[in-house]
Amino acid sequence: MDGYYIALLIVLSCTGLIWTVKGIRKKLRLMVFFGVILMLAPILVIMGWMAWLPLISSVALVASLFVRKDVRRTEF
After folding, report:
1. In this predicted model, what pLDDT tens digit does every residue of 48-65 receive, in sequence order?
2. Quick one: CA dihedral 24, 26, 27, 30, positive or negative?
3. From the CA atom positions of the chain, what is the Rg in Å?
4. What torsion, rounded to 10 degrees, do the Cα atoms 45, 48, 49, 50 define?
5. What is the pTM of this model?
6. Distance separating alpha carbons of residues 30 and 20, to the nearest angstrom
7. What sign results for the dihedral spanned by CA atoms 21, 18, 29, 37?
8. What band does 30 get if pLDDT is binned at 50, 70 and 90?
9. Is-contact 59 32, C-beta < 8 A?
10. Where are the alpha helices (DSSP H) in the chain?
């Protein structure tokens, strides 16, 4: 792999980490979902584990389920 390619993947992984932390703080499930995908996909590509890439969406979905908003229900 070229050095620039690895650097780009590391930047993408760091961006995913930032999105994940920001999504957890603001309790935004979609931001956590995409952040985990953006964080894990470049790591698996760098390590050469391309067979595990289809499982990233499942891991991201489970991670996003841990983020819960407090929903106030109105009573009728």
Report:
1. 888 998 999 999 999 998
2. negative
3. 15
4. 60
5. 0.81
6. 10
7. negative
8. very high
9. no
10. 3-26, 29-47, 56-65
CA 52/CA 8 separation, integer angstroms: 20
Tokens 């995908």 locate to 37
CA gap 58, 55 in Å, rounded? 5
Residues sharing a CB contact under 8 Å with residue 59, sequence separation 6 or more, in sequence order: 36, 40
Report the C-alpha gap between 51 and 30 in whole angstroms: 25
How many Å apart are CA 69 and CA 76, to the nearest integer? 22
Tokens of 55: 């499982």
At position 26, the amino acid (one-letter code) is K
Cβ neighbours of residue 55 closer than 8 Å, sequence gap 6 or more:
none
Has residue 39 got a pLDDT over 70? yes
